[in-house]
């Protein structure tokens, strides 16, 4: 079979590999090194990661498996007429990438245009013969690209989503050159759709749900204007071409996901993006998230473990069954973890359910089944470290929220594929899933409120997600532990001074004040 | 009613290959079958060429495949029908979930037959078409694979090549690729030029989505994958399982020997992966190159048995110990994992190994067994007993339809950590019987 050498992966034209990425990898220079004495290893107290160190201090070089394996940042460029879902895709993709840990930001050129041209008059702005309009639009695109460059080179961004129509080959060529100059990889996402119903629906969404352009018109006028706007682009639209654009990396999404054309996926992150885009859909549906009913360990104030439901927990399970029936959901899938308390809860529903091991609660390692007071007693340093960075903190011989997100990714992917689903899970797990749907940051995630005996109904709407919180009126202990209010450095009750270095800080022991009455996980 | 494994598909799925000869259909079929079985989806491949070889004992020449050869046509149709019958039997009597129907299936007529059979029986159909017109790739395919085919066992390479080229011509005239317009209701993926472009239409369910993702990540660029365990650890010496100890002096020696070995292999662009456990990282440190730590590569979690010796496990958890011997693949340690869980968590590693080229994976015994089982197509009952001794590097190189394995013992002594299945696996067995196969330790 043909050997594709890394630099010669395409037939014909040379690939547009950014100069910055083509550097030789460190491994190539291995030949002449003498056998080295292994460096000392030290374990980061927060994340429990083993890293090489010198004189007790960690060396810079740690290579954690990150999702984005490329050294060069990636620029995702949307392509398509208005009302083809480009902004929907941009926002969703950005949310997903951030959740899995790839710093991503979207740049919507329309927004730049709105800031420039304070008041939108009519579609005439978009007429191809409107020189003034064209000039402004070009400037806005440039301004956006400038911000892209800053985000990717100076602000630690890994992926930028450039959301605009980008319907001419000329515009795309400009972007490609920009990327090449800056050492970014480019991946195009084109949305092609001719279904008039879908387009109509999209327009209504853009228009009704508060596009700033149409705040002062009624819906009918707005829709009419929008359709004329689309017409302005149609004549000059050059779709990505199988032949002319054969050296570009892209996915062409046709008819809202019935069909995809995928060309030259270059690396891991592009492969993940393609997989994600091919799994999402827009069929209306709802996702129900709830925790298991109150458990025996919950009432004892102990975290983790695998206990059964209390009588109140069983009451919740019954009420949940009634609630679900009342919702009259068609074709509901029910998922649980493999822990007794979620399964007991699902059993009350008397419908088939699937057990997922990856939905198990966060593993608290040596702290499993302990009360917060006991953790404070036996592992005060650990307890404090957790409060310092609850998202990245890993329990000794256990997991972190960051680990949880990674193990929940297949659940999210399958949730995207599915329609109506009820997920019966656990506090930390539910926080992770919720953070994905509501686009919460890593800092907020571990403190999201997910009380027992409450169902969250999530319904995708426009660019986001509607949340309805339904308490089933069965009492339960509170297991939510707030972020301790006082900072580590300056707390008045602290008994030790601290250094800011998270690796070797001696931490002040004030956390008792942050414990809630019934301290549970 | 519940299931403990996420249901990938309720109705069985028939994957139907489409394409002229020498387009990689059998390569894809075998690889896909291997992957699906590894992730736990019972899959079987049905190669119509094999049925034909059984019906027509001796292959004379390409004339058999001429479109006007009525006798042959009859035989070929019968073979396809027989294969389809076996597909049905696989689904209904053997609990198969996926069948890969490997044949050219180059006419709409033939595909229509399959579609109507599937409809009648309630099977889903997913087409995988491989399209390639690069004469170099095709010539290379023919050379690598066809010259070794039972059809050409008595002929030299050039004869075989010539005859095969004529064979392909026989199919070309009647070849009707899947049509994007006429076949827009079908579910399929078209692979162009060994993966530089794909067209995907109407993915119906989870398993088809996983298949598409897999097919889009594999490549055929030559490369090698090196698998090794960490050097001997302190806990290894004591005969204790799990834990997070450092390397023993011999283990450190191995790390240095590994560095020498890797250097001597002169590998271009080698990626090095370790787990998050100290012993694999210490081993990789001596290589003096960048390495990535994957939590997914951590050793199997032995739960309550972590850091115990087998003797202690027998003493404290004799029933667990016996249950493990009864079904080592599915057995889950209390508060720990099973090999089955391990496979599930290693799937992203396999996917990334498929995407990569030269990689060295420094891992652990159970993990290495799972990865090896994937590359060497070992079933679940053999997987937990694959031999992965310390201080030995396995070099895996894909060739033809399989994988060449070269084993390098780097001449540094180490304890044996391999425990064979004892004769008596009954929970009533006595201590001696339970500990029959425990390897020596300090």
From TrEMBL, chain A:
<keyword id="KW-0418">Kinase</keyword>
<keyword id="KW-0808">Transferase</keyword>
<protein>
    <recommendedName>
        <fullName>6-phosphofructo-2-kinase domain-containing protein</fullName>
    </recommendedName>
</protein>
<feature type="domain" description="6-phosphofructo-2-kinase">
    <location>
        <begin position="69"/>
        <end position="284"/>
    </location>
</feature>
<dbReference type="Pfam" id="PF00300">
    <property type="entry name" value="His_Phos_1"/>
</dbReference>
<dbReference type="InterPro" id="IPR003094">
    <property type="entry name" value="6Pfruct_kin"/>
</dbReference>
<keyword id="KW-0067">ATP-binding</keyword>
<keyword id="KW-0597">Phosphoprotein</keyword>
<dbReference type="InterPro" id="IPR013079">
    <property type="entry name" value="6Phosfructo_kin"/>
</dbReference>
<dbReference type="GO" id="GO:0005829">
    <property type="term" value="C:cytosol"/>
</dbReference>
<dbReference type="GO" id="GO:0006000">
    <property type="term" value="P:fructose metabolic process"/>
</dbReference>
<keyword id="KW-0378">Hydrolase</keyword>
<feature type="active site" description="Tele-phosphohistidine intermediate">
    <location>
        <position position="292"/>
    </location>
</feature>
<dbReference type="InterPro" id="IPR001345">
    <property type="entry name" value="PG/BPGM_mutase_AS"/>
</dbReference>
<feature type="binding site">
    <location>
        <begin position="291"/>
        <end position="298"/>
    </location>
    <ligand>
        <name>substrate</name>
    </ligand>
</feature>
<dbReference type="GO" id="GO:0006003">
    <property type="term" value="P:fructose 2,6-bisphosphate metabolic process"/>
</dbReference>
<dbReference type="GO" id="GO:0005524">
    <property type="term" value="F:ATP binding"/>
</dbReference>
<keyword id="KW-0547">Nucleotide-binding</keyword>
<dbReference type="GO" id="GO:0003873">
    <property type="term" value="F:6-phosphofructo-2-kinase activity"/>
</dbReference>
<feature type="compositionally biased region" description="Basic and acidic residues">
    <location>
        <begin position="1"/>
        <end position="10"/>
    </location>
</feature>
<feature type="region of interest" description="Disordered">
    <location>
        <begin position="1"/>
        <end position="45"/>
    </location>
</feature>
<dbReference type="InterPro" id="IPR013078">
    <property type="entry name" value="His_Pase_superF_clade-1"/>
</dbReference>
From TrEMBL, chain B:
<dbReference type="GO" id="GO:0043540">
    <property type="term" value="C:6-phosphofructo-2-kinase/fructose-2,6-biphosphatase complex"/>
</dbReference>
<dbReference type="GO" id="GO:0006003">
    <property type="term" value="P:fructose 2,6-bisphosphate metabolic process"/>
</dbReference>
<protein>
    <recommendedName>
        <fullName>6-phosphofructo-2-kinase domain-containing protein</fullName>
    </recommendedName>
</protein>
<keyword id="KW-0547">Nucleotide-binding</keyword>
<comment type="function">
    <text>Synthesis and degradation of fructose 2,6-bisphosphate.</text>
</comment>
<keyword id="KW-0808">Transferase</keyword>
<keyword id="KW-0511">Multifunctional enzyme</keyword>
<dbReference type="InterPro" id="IPR013079">
    <property type="entry name" value="6Phosfructo_kin"/>
</dbReference>
<feature type="binding site">
    <location>
        <begin position="229"/>
        <end position="236"/>
    </location>
    <ligand>
        <name>substrate</name>
    </ligand>
</feature>
<feature type="domain" description="6-phosphofructo-2-kinase">
    <location>
        <begin position="3"/>
        <end position="222"/>
    </location>
</feature>
<dbReference type="InterPro" id="IPR013078">
    <property type="entry name" value="His_Pase_superF_clade-1"/>
</dbReference>
<dbReference type="Pfam" id="PF01591">
    <property type="entry name" value="6PF2K"/>
</dbReference>
<dbReference type="InterPro" id="IPR003094">
    <property type="entry name" value="6Pfruct_kin"/>
</dbReference>
<dbReference type="Pfam" id="PF00300">
    <property type="entry name" value="His_Phos_1"/>
</dbReference>
<keyword id="KW-0418">Kinase</keyword>
<dbReference type="GO" id="GO:0005524">
    <property type="term" value="F:ATP binding"/>
</dbReference>
<comment type="subunit">
    <text>Homodimer.</text>
</comment>
<keyword id="KW-0067">ATP-binding</keyword>
<dbReference type="GO" id="GO:0003873">
    <property type="term" value="F:6-phosphofructo-2-kinase activity"/>
</dbReference>
<keyword id="KW-0378">Hydrolase</keyword>
<feature type="active site" description="Tele-phosphohistidine intermediate">
    <location>
        <position position="230"/>
    </location>
</feature>
<feature type="active site" description="Proton donor/acceptor">
    <location>
        <position position="299"/>
    </location>
</feature>
């Amino acid at each position: 079979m043909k050997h594709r050498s890394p630099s010669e992966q395409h037939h014909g034209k040379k690939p547009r590999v950014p100069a910055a990425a083509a550097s030789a990898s460190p491994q190539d220079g291995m030949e002449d090194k003498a056998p080295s004495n292994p460096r000392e290893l030290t374990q980061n107290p927060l994340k429990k990661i083993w890293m090489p160190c010198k004189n007790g201090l960690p060396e810079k070089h740690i290579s954690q498996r990150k999702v984005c394996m490329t050294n060069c940042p990636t620029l995702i460029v949307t392509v398509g007429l208005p009302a083809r879902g480009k902004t929907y895709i941009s926002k969703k993709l950005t949310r997903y990438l951030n959740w899995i840990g790839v710093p991503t930001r979207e740049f919507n050129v329309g927004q730049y245009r709105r800031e420039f041209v304070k008041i939108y008059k009519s579609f005439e702005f978009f007429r191809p013969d409107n020189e003034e309009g064209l000039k402004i639009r070009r400037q806005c695109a440039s301004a956006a690209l400038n911000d892209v460059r800053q985000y990717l080179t100076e602000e630690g961004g890994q992926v930028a989503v450039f959301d605009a129509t980008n319907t001419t080959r000329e515009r795309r060529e400009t972007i490609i050159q920009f990327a090449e100059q800056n050492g970014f990889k480019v991946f195009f996402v084109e949305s092609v759709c001719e279904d008039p119903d879908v387009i109509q629906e999209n327009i209504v969404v853009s228009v009704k749900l508060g596009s700033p352009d149409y705040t002062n018109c009624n819906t009918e006028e707005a829709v009419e204007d929008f359709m004329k706007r689309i017409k302005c682009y149609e004549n000059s639209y050059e779709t990505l071409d199988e032949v002319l654009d054969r050296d570009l990396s892209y996915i062409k999404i046709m008819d809202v996901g019935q069909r995809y054309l995928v060309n030259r996926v270059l690396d891991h992150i592009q492969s993940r993006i393609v997989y994600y885009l091919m799994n999402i859909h827009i069929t209306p549906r709802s996702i129900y998230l709830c925790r298991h009913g109150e458990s025996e360990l919950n009432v004892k104030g102990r975290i983790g473990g695998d206990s059964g439901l209390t009588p109140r927990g069983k009451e919740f399970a019954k009420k949940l069954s009634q609630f679900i029936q009342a919702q009259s959901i068609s074709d509901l899938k029910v998922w649980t973890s493999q822990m007794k308390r979620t399964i007991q809860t699902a059993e009350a529903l008397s419908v088939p359910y699937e057990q997922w091991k990856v939905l198990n609660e966060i593993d608290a390692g040596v702290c499993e089944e302990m009360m917060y007071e006991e953790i404070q007693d036996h592992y005060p340093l650990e307890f404090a470290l957790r409060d310092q960075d609850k998202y990245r903190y890993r329990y000794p011989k256990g997991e972190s929220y960051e680990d949880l997100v990674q193990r929940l990714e297949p659940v999210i992917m399958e949730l995207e594929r599915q329609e109506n689903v009820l997920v019966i899970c656990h506090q930390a797990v539910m926080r992770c899933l919720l953070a994905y749907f509501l686009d919460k940051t890593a800092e907020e995630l571990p403190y999201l409120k997910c009380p027992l005996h409450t169902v969250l109904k999530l319904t995708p709407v426009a660019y986001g997600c509607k949340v309805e919180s339904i308490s089933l009126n069965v009492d339960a202990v509170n297991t939510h532990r707030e972020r301790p209010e006082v900072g580590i450095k300056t707390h008045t009750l602290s008994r030790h001074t601290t250094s800011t270095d998270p690796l070797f800080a001696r931490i002040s022991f004030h956390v008792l004040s942050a414990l809630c009455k019934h301290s549970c996980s | 009613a519940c299931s403990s494994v996420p249901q990938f598909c309720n109705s069985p799925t028939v994957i139907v290959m489409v394409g002229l000869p020498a387009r990689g259909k059998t390569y894809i079929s075998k690889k896909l079958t291997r992957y699906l079985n590894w992730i736990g989806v019972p899959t079987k491949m049905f190669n119509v060429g094999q049925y034909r070889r059984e019906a027509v004992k001796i292959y004379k020449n390409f004339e058999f495949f001429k479109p006007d050869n009525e006798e042959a046509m009859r035989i070929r149709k019968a073979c396809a029908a027989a294969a389809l019958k076996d597909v049905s039997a696989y689904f209904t009597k053997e609990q198969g979930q996926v069948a890969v129907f490997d044949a050219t299936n180059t006419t709409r007529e033939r595909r229509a037959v399959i579609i109507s059979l599937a409809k009648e029986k309630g099977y889903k159909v997913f087409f995988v078409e491989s399209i390639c017109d690069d004469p170099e790739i095709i010539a290379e395919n023919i050379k690598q694979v066809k010259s070794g085919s039972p059809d050409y066992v008595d002929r030299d390479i050039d004869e075989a090549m010539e005859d095969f080229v004529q064979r392909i011509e026989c199919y070309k005239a009647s070849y009707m690729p899947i049509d994007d317009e006429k076949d827009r209701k079908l579910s399929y993926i078209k692979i162009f030029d060994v993966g530089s472009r794909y067209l995907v239409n109407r993915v119906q369910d989870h398993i088809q989505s996983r298949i598409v993702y897999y097919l889009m990540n594999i490549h055929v660029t030559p490369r090698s994958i090196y698998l090794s365990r960490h050097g001997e650890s302190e806990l290894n010496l004591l005969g204790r399982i799990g834990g997070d100890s450092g390397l023993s002096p011999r283990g450190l020696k191995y790390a240095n020997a590994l560095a020498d070995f890797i250097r001597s292999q002169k590998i271009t662009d080698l990626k090095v992966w370790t787990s998050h456990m100290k012993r694999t990282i210490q081993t990789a440190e001596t290589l003096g190159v960048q390495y990535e730590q994957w939590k997914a590569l951590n050793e199997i979690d032995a739960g309550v048995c972590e850091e115990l010796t087998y003797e202690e496990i027998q003493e404290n958890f004799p029933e667990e110990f016996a249950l493990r011997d009864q079904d080592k693949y599915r057995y889950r340690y209390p508060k720990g994992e099973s090999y089955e869980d391990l496979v599930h968590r290693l799937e992203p590693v396999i996917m990334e190994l498929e995407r990569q080229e030269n990689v060295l994976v420094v891992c652990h015994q159970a993990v290495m067994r799972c990865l090896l089982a994937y590359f060497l197509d070992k079933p679940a009952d053999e997987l937990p007993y694959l031999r992965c001794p310390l201080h030995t590097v396995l070099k895996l190189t894909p060739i033809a339809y399989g994988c060449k394995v070269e084993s390098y013992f780097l001449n540094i002594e180490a304890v044996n950590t391999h425990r064979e299945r004892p004769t008596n696996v009954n929970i009533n067995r006595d201590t001696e019987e339970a500990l029959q196969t425990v390897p020596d330790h300090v």
